[in-house]
Amino acid sequence: MTLPAGSALQDKIAVVTGAGSGMGLATVQAFVREGATVYALDISQDNLDRELGSETAVTPLAVDISDSAAVSAVFDQVRKEHGRLDILINAAGVNTPNRRATEWLDSINHTMIEHMKAGQPFAPEFLEETPDTDFDRVMKINVHGTFYAIRAAAPLLKAAGGGAVVNFASVAGQVALPMPAYYPASKAAVVGMTRSVAGELAPFNIRVNALAPAGINTALLTQSGDDHVQALLAMQPLKRLAEPEEIAETLVFLSSDAGAHYTGQIFSPSGGALLT
């Protein structure tokens, strides 16, 4: 049966993490447009209410994905209300663990860019200045949180007779970029997890893929200033940021019947920053 336009995910039940902003928010909106019922998870209830409060097909839930019990409770709710799950999108993640680390990284990036403009060498030093707590926090959100969600979702995806999982990695997890090690390490771990889980769940008709974006026009990226954006674009053959809505369309494809033969793949909407 061919579904009419705008119904690629008709009657599907989806969970989207990181749903209060950026690519996660755009994904929720695209899924609703395509006929899905969505559980939208985010650390901020205010963001969810502001962006998605009027969507009748959305259940907004404030959840810290680094909290295993809280994540399990969400999927228990999905089980009680629907008995199955068709789609899981793991979009939640951070590139720094806190405001202090963000300001520290921004200052180094700005210094590096100024040296580049002046044609002067600059070697950023991150390792010795990264405390255990910063490394642990990023891994807890980006890696543990993704694992908690997949683990809790698996029985519901099996109950549906199959489904789709898409995890958010990053081009930073696949190429060498100067930054604190916790971010590329966490995103490389997501790549490995994606491939491993794809093999385990394939016999149950559950497809598991990952996205490895580069420059996306979100507040997480642009908050560091235009110089930082331009430095990123200098590494891309395509000299523009992608819009969150573009990424959402890729997720609609991977979550729908149109993407039914893709699993264990790492898709990189990076403007050519990653060429393989």
From TrEMBL:
InterPro entries: NAD(P)-bd_dom_sf, SDR_fam. GO terms for molecular function: oxidoreductase activity. It comes from the Bacteria. Keywords: Oxidoreductase. Transmembrane segments: none annotated. Pfam families: adh_short. Belongs to the short-chain dehydrogenases/reductases (SDR) family. This is SDR family oxidoreductase. It comes from Corynebacterium hylobatis. The lineage of its organism: Bacteria, Bacillati, Actinomycetota, Actinomycetes, Mycobacteriales.
